[in-house]
Design a protein that fits this description.
By secondary structure, this protein is mostly helical. The protein has one domain. Helix content is about 60%, strand content about 5%. The protein is built from 5 helices and 2 strands. β1 and β2 form a beta hairpin. α3 packs across α4, α3 crosses α5 and α4 crosses α5. The protein is globular and about 30 Å long.
Length: about 100
Amino acid sequence: MTIYLSNAIENATSIEQVVELINEGTCEGMEGIEFTADILAGQYAWSAAKDFVDSAGMTADDLEAQLEFLSAAGAVFSESVAVDHGLKLAAADTE
């Protein structure tokens, strides 16, 4: 399975930029790939959690901790979808 990463999230330099991208509701990437708010939040959570835990050992709890921080900063997204996407990214990162 191919999983794409949003360059916009990768290149964001502040939590405020991440929140803005997520709250826009969608972000178009290369080749017309569309990233929803939930997917962007999941990517952010996975990327942030990697600072604390290897992708191979990453759990939903690791992602939820990052998503709580993101939500407190004002981002609006579905936590369950974001966690699911973050876990898919973690699994793909270990292949």
